[in-house]
Structure formats: C-alpha cells, structure tokens
Amino acid sequence: MPQVALTVNGKQHTVEVEGRTLLVELLREKLGLTGTHVGCDTSQCGACVVHVDGRSLKSCTMLALQADGCSVTTIEGLAKPDGTLHPMQEMFREHHALQCGFCTPGMVMSAIDLVQMHPEGLTEAEIREGLEGNLCRCTGYHNIVKAVAAAWPLMHGKPAPAAAAE
Amino acid sequence: MGFEGIGASVKRKEDPRFLSGRGHYTDDINRPGQLYAFVKRSDRPHARITSIDTAAAKSAPGVVAVFTGADMQADNVGGLPCGWQIHSKDGSPMAEPAHPVLAVDKVRYVGDPVAVVIAENRQQAKDAAEALAIDYQDLPAIATVLDAVKPGAATVHDDVPGNQCYDWHIGSKEPVDAAFAGAAKTVKLELVNNRLIPNAMEPRAAIGDFDPSTGDYTLYTTSQNPHVIRLLMGAFVLHIPENQLRVVAPDVGGGFGSKIFHYNEEAIVTWAAGKVKRPVKWTAERNESFMSDAHGRDHVSTAEMALDAQGNFLALRVKTLCNMGAYLSTFAPSVPTYLYATLLAGVYKTPAIYAEVKAVFTNTVPVDAYRGAGRPEATFLLERLVDVIAHDIGIDRVELRRRNFIPVDAFPYQTPVALQYDSGNYFATLDAAQKAADVAGFEARRTAAKAKGKLRGLGYSTYVEACGIAPSAVVGSLGARAGLYEVANIRVHPTGSVTVFTGTHSHGQGHETTLAQLVVEQLGVPLSQVEVVHGDTAKIPFGMGTYGSRSLAVGGSAMVKAMDKIVNKGKKIAAHLMEASVEDIEFKDGKFTVAGTDRSKALAEISLAAYVPHNYPIEELEPGLEETAFYDPKNFTFPGGCHVCEVEIDADTGVAQVVNFTAVDDIGRVINPMIVEGQVQGGVAQGIGQALYERAVYDANGQLVSGSLMDYTMPRADNVPNIHVGTETTLCTHNPLGAKGVGEVGAIGSPPAVINAVVDALRDYGVRHIDMPASPQKIWSIIQAGRPRAAAE
Ligand code: FES
Ligand code: FES
Question: Does pLDDT of B538 surpass 50?
Fold first, then answer.
C-alpha cells in the first residue's frame, strides 16, 4: 500500500493508505482525530473543513496521498498546548454559535481562514458569503455570523474597521 | 459565581468539548474488533424481488457475512412497530401493513433496505455490495398522494385496498355545514404543504455490540430517545429483554424529529452483531439520509372559512390528504391527526370546526414528524387562509386577526377541536412584534426598495402550537401506545455536588446547561458542580426522550418534583442535626435554616450527614440523598406568538430574499435567554428553508429526484437574515416551572409569515396564493404573467 507522510497538528505521521482513501478518512480512521466530521458525500456541507498548509480545505475532497508533505491543522490542534482556546473558538462559545456541535469544527476552521484572508475587515454580508460552503441546520447562522465578527478584532489585534462593524 | 439560575444567559457547559473536537458522536465511537455494515437499498420504487444471489458478495475480500430479509425472517425477527394507532371515522383501526427490517418479497420505495453486507472495513463492505445480484420485477409505483387515491390506482400493499391508511375526522360536521349555509361570505383555499427532508447535519449511524459471555447487547445510535428504541426494538423486533439490551445515544448532531423513530439499521446492526459475534458499525452516507431518514409534511388540503358580514369567523372546514410513505414510521399516524387537526382553531375563536384527514400509502420514504410535526401544517393553512380572506373581502389582515383572536380573558379556552389552551395573549405578541419589526416604517422601506427595482413585502403569522408532549392518559385515549411522562433522578453526592439523570435527550438544545440551571435555582448549587447525564439506558431511568418541545415543560418539571423531595428530606435531616422541629426549617440559597435564627446547615453538610449517617434520624429516614420523580403533564402547553417577515424580490430574476425577520413568542418561563434565542433563530431558518428553498421531489415513477445536497436546497448563511427574537410571557398554568417550550415555535410560526410577505410583495401582480417553496421560477412566472396588467394600471 502507498504511504503518505504528513504533519498533523504539529506531529509527524507516516501512514499506509489505499489510493482512494480521503484525507478525512485518514484523519478520522487512521489518526483517531474524530473532531473533523463527515456530513455529506458531495462536498456540500463543510463539516470536514481543516487547514492544509494554512488554508481551509474540505478534507472529503482531497485524497490522503495528495496531502503528502503537507501540514494539516484540525480542530483538535487549534487550542494552545495549555488548553487556551483560539479566539474563534472562544467567540463561538461567547455568542452561542453552536447547538448540536456537528457543523462546528468545520465552521470554525472555515471562519478562521475567512478572517485571516480579510485583514481589511469583513462586513456581515461578506461573512455570510464567506461561510456559504458550510451548512448548519441548528443555529440559523445568526450567532455564527456574530461570533465571526467578534473574532476579527481579537485575531487581528485591532478594532474592526468602522464600516465592517456596522 | 455570577447569577446562574433561572433567567441567566450562562454559557453552555457542553461547548468546550464540541469546540475542541472532543464530542462523542456515534460514528466517533469504535469498538474493539468492529466490522462495518453496508446496507444495499432498492433503486426501484416498487418491485417484486425475484431473486437475490449473495454468493459473489460473500466471497469478496474482507466480507464476513451477507444477510437478506429471508435470513432475518428465518430467525424470527419481527417487523418495525408503529407507536400510534388511529381509528377511522367508521371506527375501524388504521391499516398497518407489515414493515420488515430488510425487504421480503417486495421493495416499496427507493432506499428500502434489501440486504446488508458486513466486512472488515467500510470500503470492502461497499465494494462487495456491488457484487450482490438482485433481480427485480418492476411494479407500477405511486409517487404522490393524489396518485394514491385515483380510482384504479396501483396498491403499495396488497392488503391495503385503495392505499388508505385511515380516513379520520375531528370536530362536528353539522354545525359547520349550518354555518356555511347561513354565512354572509365564504372563502376557500387549496394548498400544498411541501414535502421536506430533515437533513440533520450528522448522518444517522448505529453500532451493534454483543457480548457472547453474557448474551448482552449494546446499541449505540443517533437517537433522540434511547429508551424508546430499547423498548421497541427489544420487545417487538429482536425479542431481547430490557435487562440484556443497552441503548446509548451519545452526542447527537441534530435531530429535528428525524432521529425519534426506530429505524431498520438499528435492528440490523444489533441483530447482525449477535450473529457474527463482533461489533457491527453502520454510518449513513448523505445520499442514504435522503432516501432513508423519515421525511416531513407532504399534505394537500382544502380549507374553507364561513364569515359573517363583519368578518367574524363562523366556521372552518378542512380536508387534508396526507402521505405516510411506503410504511408506517414510529409516530407517523399521529402527526396529521392529533398534532395537526387539533391545532386548526389556531389563535382564533372560530366556534365550529370540522376537519377530515385521509392518510395514504405511496412508494416513497416513510413520512413522520419533522420539527413542529403537524403544527406547521396547521399554522400554514390557517395563516394563509386568513390572509386570503383579508384579500378577498377587502379587510386589513391585522384588523381581521385582532377581530377573531381568542380574547385575553377567555383562558382557559376550549377549542372545538379537543384542545384546551391554558394561557396566552395573542394581542400582546402581535403588538410587540409590530413594534420590534417597525411595521410603521414599512411603507417607506417598500418605496425605497421600489426605487432599486425590488418588490418588498411584509407578512404576518400569528400562531399557537401544542407541545410539552404529553398527558399520558389523554394521548392513550387518542391511540398512543406509549406513556409520555418524563422522569428525573437527582443525586446529591456526599460533598454536595449534584448529578441529574434525565430521561430527555439533548442533541443541540443545551440541556446540560439549562437543566443544570434548574438545580442552581432550586438547590443553590453552583453550575460547575452540577452534571446532567442523558442518553444511556444503563444510566438513566426509563424516560421518553426529546421531541415535541417537552424537555423543559415535562422533563424539567420531573426535576422540580425530585428536587422538592430532596429538600423535604434535607429538612428532616437538618431538623435532627440542629435539634429543631421540621416545620421550623426553611431552605433557601442552598442553606437549611432554623426560622428566625442564624443557625443553618449548608446542603453539603446535610448530604454528608446523609451518606455518613453517624448522627442521623436512622429510625425514620433512610440514608442517602437521591430522589427520583416521574411527572405526567396535566395538559399540553401552548406557546404562541407573532412572526413578521419582510422579503425583497428581484423583479428580473424572481429571487426572494428575507431581509428582516422578527419573532415575538410566548414560550412561558425562560430559563436561558441565550439558548432560547438560538432555538428560535434555528427554527425560523428551517421555516425560511421550507418557505423559499426546500422540497423533496419524486418523479412520476417514484424516483427520488432531490436525492443529494446538490439537488435539495438547504438554507445557507447568505439565504437567511439576522433574526430578531423577542418574548412576551404568559406562564403555563399547570406545570411547576410555568414553562411552555421553545424547540419548535420557530419552524411553526415562520413559513406562512414568509409566504404572506411574498404574496404581499407581489400584490400588484394579481396573485392570491403561492405554494411553498416560493422558488424564483414560480415568482418569476407570476411576475411575467402579471406584468401586462400591472403595467396597464
Ligand atoms: S463532508 Fe460534506 S463537504 Fe466534506
Ligand atoms: S450546530 Fe448543529 S449543525 Fe450547526
């Protein structure tokens, strides 16, 4: 069986996989990282989003072998070693942006990338559009949008631009 | 510690594990030696199985076993039972055709399980299923309720002529007919309540485990009610006594009703685990969710109102044809009857109501409760009808509603369709919603939108629903085969921390937090020292689970009763320790005090004395501080309210966008306002989904066309607006918390508000009614057809 060597949450792994194994299957089934979820079979739901080399990516849409040499971060790797949550995780809790929690890991990973990619600020409409690839059946998105807006100043270390804050 | 009791928006206790990827959903669980099941499903809507050849599949790599319906039948496995029996008008019981776990002889819908392949890993099971040779002889299929009742229609079940499950009615016909005969005006509306696919984000999953040394079975499953599954599967399907069957519903990723029911796969993995003597895991792929999770709604109705000259409602007549799908799912028959037609009075004092409901079988996935279950259908029918009446007789829609509202002083109010509403104030929620939605400023917003080429409309829905399900004797007399009380066990530990064992189940509702807040409030224990345990039949007492917005009103009330017992026992212990009389002991803020003195004992001191009973009234009191209470509600609870929706329609494309949504609901006592807002917002988003986007589509031959997330439109972040939530409270009068329930109100109240807004936006185009979903195509066609007239005006 072919091998894939990759870094996941800072740890090196070399794993044997079938050619057809998806990255999400590698994470969940081979590495036991079950925080990354599978919500669909058509790349529609975003429950499986992780970061690959710093950018968000649907891990059901990438073969494990394609991740060879990559650095992957999953929801389990977000908090600091001392357990301090990432500001996005904190704001999700603060603003009740999760109910059943199933979409949450993917939503948080997508949201972090979205905020990182927009140092100029994000309007509510941009946040909603930016999260289009992630389905949530529980929250109606209202509080997710609030949480992402609240995480922006924490992640960029400055107040949100006035236009974005309104 | 800040304020953490009733009314505090404390942050959720469950969040840290969900936010760090440490939730335990069923598919996250792996048992040693676990095998994987793949369920082979019918790709035919209706066919006779002429042969199944399993030889090639059995010899495929990694395959441990292949089972078919014949194997289960030979092992005396029973069919899936139905939990509710309806009787037709003529007194005859509903048709209840056999519902085999794996199809025997015939398949009856696309998705019907035919065989199961069990292999060392998921892929091997799936690959081997390709090698199953199944020969079918196609039969004519019934795709819709209208097809099902056509004369000479094919039959889904040989033993159910005319495809009729039941033909039921409620109310009295004669007074309704008389009122229509003498009415100044009558208004009629035909409408469809679109079929929906629930799509909880976590696909269903199940793991069966068998211990050959004890003969004990364990089922891990994505369920809203593990004890109900244990009872149904143990007693009716697999004949395993309760003491040898444990059902665990761990973290569950949303349910919305679709995870109430006892499903085929639960029985398959449990039974198969016993056969192969190894754990067997099954996880649905999303395409399986589409074709095997019970669908929702699917009604075709005619509604007629008789009015006097002043616009007072005199009588309502309703005829509904509803879809059961191919087999009866667990609670299916109750949904279009006791959860639907009993709500047809709505918030109005209509004196006479008569409704006829005919349920039919079709070659489609079973249809059962989906968020709101029957009540959204009733609300949509009524609130559309009221707007159409206002349109037809030329009266303001708000004035018409106010004129017919049940007056504030009329509670308790007995409706003509069985229910007695204990409390409510529909004027208050309407007033508050109008204010919060700035209805006064709407015309200006409409004009501004017009300048941008957009058609803006505003719609109302004023609704009531029945939840807090349910008084056992009442539902028993209506055909329920189960009790619907709830149970709580409160264990105060020796050092004063508390564990709550509840029969309810949380799959997003946040019970680990809200139920703990009840303990904070009543026993004065800090939130951090309260743990709520749910979802495991080996731990919790026999409770009925979570649906019908019952967890707080019924489950919370059971907790209050159990905590009353704790306090009463604690008073006796405190009296002994402080050498006072029991009557003089008061309990407040976690302290037992001798009235009028400064002598007191904290709960932790009392609990320590209870478990270390050295100085203890042992003659009259048992040691320990743990109490169980069962609570059977005296009535349903009746949340209600007013939703106001504003939409903007792009006249060129027909795309409707909800731009403002305001919900003011009366849900009784609020425990955690933050969680309440979230529940309403989520429900409203599902209602917007039903109104504008979602529809399960079968083609004429019974093929499921909307079978994936690429074909079925789920609302996404940019399809819904911010949702303003307010509350106006009247307390429930018959439970100790005054709580009514909030889980379903969003999905019940919102769809007609959205459609009423769409119709309002299109008022210049001669449209009276639009069925859901109000898709761009439908709206665009209306605009195109109406254009000449509108232009000419
Ligand atoms: S699992 Fe749905 S997008 Fe990856
Ligand atoms: S919190 Fe349940 S799907 Fe988003």
Answer: yes
Q: What is the DSSP letter of B108?
A: -
What token pair was written down for B654? Answer: 């027909």
In this structure, which topology does domain B299-469+635-792 adopt according to CATH?
Aldehyde Oxidoreductase; domain 4 (3.30.365)
User: What's the structural domain count of chain A?
Assistant: 2
Are A104 and B28 within 8 A, CB to CB?
A: no
B17 φ, ψ (degrees, to nearest 5): -75, -35
Are both A65 and A119 inside the same structural domain? Answer: no
In the three-class reduction of DSSP (H, G, I as helix; E, B as strand; rest coil), residue B615 is classed as: coil
Query: pLDDT value at position B791?
Result: 43
Q: Which residues between 579 and 638 in chain B have a beta carbon less than 8 angstroms from any beta carbon of chain A?
A: none
User: Region B673-699: what's the mean pLDDT?
Assistant: 98
Contact B236, B262 (CB under 8 A): no
Let me know if residue A144 belongs to a domain.
Answer: yes
Taking chain B, what is the end-to-end CA distance rounded to the nearest angstrom? Answer: 66
Residue type, B714: M
Report residues whose beta carbon is within 6 angstroms of any ligand 2 atom: A 98-104, 136-139; B 201, 253-254, 508
- pTM for the predicted model, two decimal places: 0.97
Beta-carbon separation of A101 and B27 below 8 A = no
Give the model's pLDDT for residue B667.
Answer: 97
- The ipTM is 0.97
- Two domains, one topology: B18-23+34-139+199-292 and B299-469+635-792: no
Q: Is A126 on the interface with B (CB under 8 A)?
A: no
Say whether B508 and A127 touch across the interface (CB within 8 A): no
Beta bridge partners of B49: B136
Question: Is the pLDDT confidence value at B84 over 80?
Answer: yes
Query: In this structure, which amino acid lies at residue B142?
Result: I
Homologous superfamily assigned to B18-23+34-139+199-292:
Aldehyde oxidase/xanthine dehydrogenase, a/b hammerhead (3.90.1170.50)
Q: Is residue A115 part of a domain?
A: yes
- Other C-beta atoms closer than 10 Å to the C-beta of B123 total 17
Q: Are B154 and B89 in contact (CB under 8 A)?
A: no
B112 pLDDT exceeds 60? Answer: yes
What is the spatial distance between Cα B533 and Cα B518, in angstroms, rounded to a whole number?
Answer: 14
Residue matched to tokens 């209509």:
B350
> Mean pLDDT over residues B336-343, rounded?
97
Q: Tens digit of pLDDT for each residue in B262-310? A: 999 999 999 999 999 999 999 999 999 999 999 999 999 999 999 999 9
User: What per-residue confidence (pLDDT) applies to B72?
Assistant: 98
Q: In the CATH hierarchy, which top-level class contains the domain B485-631?
A: alpha beta
